[in-house]
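Complex 405.
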Amino acid sequence: MKIERPRGTRDFLPEEMERRRAVEKVMREIAESFGYREISTPTFEHLELFTLKSGQDIVEEIYAFTDKSGRNLALRPELTAPVMRMFVNECSVMPRPMRFYYFSNCFRYERPQKGRYREFWQFGVELIGSDKPESDAEVILLAYQIMKSLNVRFSLHIGHVGLLRDVLSDVTDKDRAMRLIDKKDWKGLEMMLEEEGFSEIFHTVREISEAESLNEVRSIYPDFDYSHLESVFGILESLDLDFTPDFGIARGLDYYTGVVFEMYAEGLGAQKQVCGGGSYRLAKLFGGDDVPSTGFAIGFDRVVEVCSIEIERKPVAVVVGFGDSLRAFRVAEMLRNLGITALVDVMDRSVRKQLSFADSINADFAVFAGEELDRGKVRIKNLRTQKQEDVDLESIGSYFSEEIT
Ligand code: ATP
Ligand code: MG
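Predicted structure with magnesium ion bound:
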């Protein structure tokens, strides 16, 4: 019986995994260079962690289940809530600010399509403990550097949900309105606001979301304190970041309170959002102090799709044995110690077949573990140049450093 993988999931073959690991490495190194340290939380949590802020509706979109003891659990659909739960439970006495990053799989019950899966990966950071413009600027800069280093062609949009929430302050269901704005569902928003008698608010929201600069939005809606946003923009401009002010960013998740940002990559079609983030307050909701935080989540799978990155590959040698596997194992060990990937024959194949296997996996060298080993030599064939020579065991190191340029 052939069993298919579940809908919306993927298998990753070695080449794909090499690419994914290379991308992951860049992300980790950049986050670490900013002082962020990795954390890891459970794959499943109490369902409540995700419904507390977003409400019961979210259950439709997540893998929720009851375990054998009747607990309501859920596979994590994202990492910010788990990280904040962890912060409240484990880290409240650690020195602030805290800089955490994660790289983990997430699960959402969504309709699978290109760039949208039921199991996908997020790389994200949370900077916990500050609500100053510098922390927003740092987190945005970090996401920006990651995309640049991966040669993603993207645009960065920055706004402030406080502004939209302020405009909507008289509206009963602000979260619903924000979700409609996030989806750019203007018809839906107009209907909703007209029903409540707020058509004027609708027009203001539309105008704000179309404004192209701080000055423009200030003239549309002067009753808001723009100083925080001004500082963030100021820092990022001085650092030569290329971004678009976008006051229509509402973010789908309900926990953002201040500056928010999104990144869209070219070459992805409809699923073009590769990063979303902003500042929020969740710690209090999870039973901690009211600690401000800023963070982002990168849609790892979408970035892998569009980034361009060199993949480092160690030289590969096939050790050709002549019926004496111990010799082959010893030679392979020597090569591995030199940083060369070494494969030995485990199928008792003929020399000819071992060489054709080397060819089929595109190996760089064939190293013969023959009798000359007893005279302190190995025969090495460079499969790129077809050049073959006997090399003293003491000089294999220098042989390879010369051949691999
Ligand atoms: P979208 O509008 O594309 O559904 P979102 O607002 O739900 O995104 P977030 O919750 O902010 O996304 O998650 C951060 C990032 O994770 C997104 O920008 C996106 O790149 C990625 N992402 C979200 N859902 C999926 C999914 N089902 N499959 C693959 N990547 C996803
Ligand atoms: Mg979504």
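The two ends are 49 Å apart (CA to CA).
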